[in-house]
Specification:
52% helix; repeat; mainly alpha; respiratory chain
């Protein structure tokens, strides 16, 4: 038997302390499925900003010292998501909705991913590179990705 009583909370926890200042950058407004869907392309598009942010965090050890770099990453991501909605909305929606419906399991949404990748490659000129398995055909370029 436990030495103390369990605490069950039926109410929503709300932080009552005000923020020191309003964030200068609006949130992205995406849930995890759209972000996962766009993550490969987003990391390539915003690579320089991400690297600056990570180097700042490593050098300072204090996350507060890197807020400026963090805002740059968020702005880049927001701009890319807006461009995705403008150019590849149908394909992106199909891919992230598939991920959302299938527990965010990437291999279950390969046909939707292929259509989304083709749109991004055509409209943005990006390529999808995977750091693992150099010299091997990436899964998004395989004819039958399920049987490889």
């Amino acid at each position: 038997m436990a030495g103390r009583e369990a605490i069950y909370v039926d109410a929503l926890w709300v932080e009552k302390a005000p923020l020191e200042g309003e964030p200068a950058v609006a949130e992205l407004g995406c849930t995890s499925a759209p972000l996962l869907s766009a993550s490969f392309h987003l990391s390539q598009k915003c690579k320089a900003y991400n690297e600056d942010f990570l180097l700042c965090k490593k050098a300072n050890g204090d996350p507060e010292a890197c807020l400026k770099e963090g805002r740059r990453v968020t702005r880049c991501a927001a701009d890319f998501i807006a461009a995705l909605r403008k150019n590849c909305e149908k394909q992106w929606d199909a891919h992230w909705q598939c991920l959302d419906a299938k527990n965010q399991t990437l291999h279950k949404c390969r046909p939707e991913e292929k259509a989304f990748n083709e749109c991004v490659f055509d409209k943005f000129g990006l390529t999808k590179t995977l750091p693992t398995n150099p010299g091997e055909t990436p899964v998004h370029l395989k004819e039958k990705p399920y049987y490889s």
